[in-house]
């Protein structure tokens, strides 16, 4: 049972450390990958990119599925691919679009079962945001001082106590987590830089991989600005 949240913009060339780490958590080059592109409006381009990226890493079994409606998430062929996969990988795009296509469906139940049974679930950008129970859906950092400026919905619930935000330092999104944590003080905010991932394992261990940092934010009324903030890079203890 491994969850891998990626901040988007991961290297897809031969130095693809983040995607390599995804494989390492499963069966390496022998991993069977299922990429779910339901979040994107450019499924053909995304499919081509990930097929090429995983092929460059030595993977021969990479399936792509692009569910756009809940009805498609009951397709027996889709369910068969979920059952066969070692890694379920959600692409980027619009997390609300992804959740609308899968929420409450047989496909999502199968993915959740895959995860509970020890499988790997990974997501990048919107795919990572959707892993949270409290899922950020929009809002600009420069407007985050207004309580209603940053919006949220309900995601897939793989990480019940975490709110993920992506493209984090690249787009100056720390104020977005401040806003949501002020309304959800029991959660931990995790900001993921581009080409960077946080691996969360069943034994409770976590690891940062990639070229950037992962930012951990928790509510603390005694701290500066009312929050504790830690920036962690690859190799640093969590």
Report what the structure shows.
The chain has 238 residues and is an alpha/beta fold. It has 7 helices and 13 strands. It has one domain: Rossmann fold, CATH 3.40.50.880. Helices cover 27% and strands 29% of the residues. The strands form 3 sheets. A 7-stranded mixed sheet has the order 3-2-4-5-1-10-11, with helices on both faces. It has a 4-stranded mixed sheet with strand order 8-9-12-13. It has a two-stranded antiparallel ribbon with strand order 6-7. Strand 2 (32-36), helix 2 (43-56) and strand 3 form a beta-alpha-beta unit. The chain is globular and about 50 Å long. The mean pLDDT is 96.
The neighbouring-strand order within the major sheet is 3-2-4-5-1-10-11
Number of strands: 13
Q: The CATH topology is what?
A: Rossmann fold
**Please, how many helices?**
7
Helix content: 25-40%
Shape: globular
N- to C-terminal distance: 19 Å
């Amino acid at each position: 049972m491994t969850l891998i949240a990626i901040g988007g913009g991961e290297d897809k060339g031969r130095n693809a450390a983040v995607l390599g780490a995804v494989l390492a958590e499963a069966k390496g080059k022998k991993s069977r990958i299922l990429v779910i592109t339901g979040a994107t409006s450019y499924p053909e381009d995304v499919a081509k990119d990930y097929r090429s990226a995983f092929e460059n890493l030595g993977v021969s079994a990479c399936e792509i599925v692009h569910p756009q409606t809940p009805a498609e998430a009951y397709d027996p062929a889709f369910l068969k691919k979920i059952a066969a996969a070692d890694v379920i990988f959600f692409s980027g795009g619009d997390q609300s679009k992804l959740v609308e296509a899968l929420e409450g469906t047989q496909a999502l139940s199968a993915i959740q079962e895959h995860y509970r049974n020890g499988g790997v679930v990974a997501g990048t950008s919107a795919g990572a945001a959707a892993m949270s129970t409290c899922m950020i859906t929009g809002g600009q950092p420069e407007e985050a001082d207004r309580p209603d400026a940053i919006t949220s919905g309900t995601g897939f619930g793989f990480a019940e106590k975490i709110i993920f935000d992506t493209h984090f330092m690249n787009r100056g999104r720390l104020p977005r987590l401040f806003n949501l944590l002020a309304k959800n003080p029991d959660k931990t905010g995790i900001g993921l830089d581009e080409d960077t991932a946080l691996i969360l394992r069943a034994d409770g261990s976590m690891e940062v991989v990639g070229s950037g940092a992962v930012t951990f934010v928790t509510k603390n009324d005694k701290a500066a600005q009312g929050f504790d903030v830690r920036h962690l890079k690859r190799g640093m203890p969590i």
